[in-house]
Amino acid sequence: MHIRTILLVFCCGFATLAFSAGGVDKITKEGQSRTQDGERAQNKVNALNDSTTDIISNYKTVSKVVDGLKVYNDLLALQIDNQNKESVQIQESIANVSSLGRHIVPLMARMIDSLDHFVKLDVPFLNEERTSRVEKLRKMMLRSDVTDAEKFRRVIEAYQVESDYGRTIEAYRGSLKFGDRTSEVDFLRVGRIALLYQSIGGATTGAWDAKAKKWVEVSAADYKSHVAQGIRIARKQVAPDLLVIPVSAAVEVAQ
What we know:
Blueprint: H1 2-121, H2 127-141, H3 148-165, E1 169-178, E2 181-190, E3 194-199, E4 205-209, E5 214-217, H4 220-234
Antiparallel strand pairs: 1-2, 2-3, 3-4, 4-5
Helix pairs in contact: 1-2, 1-3, 2-3
């Protein structure tokens, strides 16, 4: 009786121990599984957090770019507005220039005619050069590749050249016709008050008579040395000095 009881108790105890060991293993495995699940979940949370941080960072970067683009677009809009205003002003200027051109072209034509008339009636120095200058102006007026502003500048320039002749002294060599023969002479121009000549050897000295509109021979005794000296002065061969030269009366040129 006692042996059975002890054996039964022992068997029950052994069964209890066996059951307890199996339960612990199961619980341990479940705990490990839950821990692993927790780690995986935490990794997902961490990955999601990193992804969220990247998204926020990218958003801030994009926001800065957008703000910069807004500022750029505002400036670009102002530039376009200013360009439109400038375009309107340019169109108005073109219209004004076109209107001015219709008035200035006839004015330039009259100025060239007046210059041509003046050269023909003036003291006959550098005739070929001055006549050629007028002809070039006439040809220029027919050219479409030259602007009205450039044409006007050249006309004014020609007037300035003619004006400068009245304030300078000049000596140059040229041809002069005496009856049926033509001879090389040295010309001396003193402003517009005197135009003289002297033959190459100095044998003959003469002056332009503005009133009679012809060349006349002058006294060699009175003017030969002075004209020769004037030629040297004009060529800068000697220092300036006082000269005694024949001067004809001024003649008014009709305009």
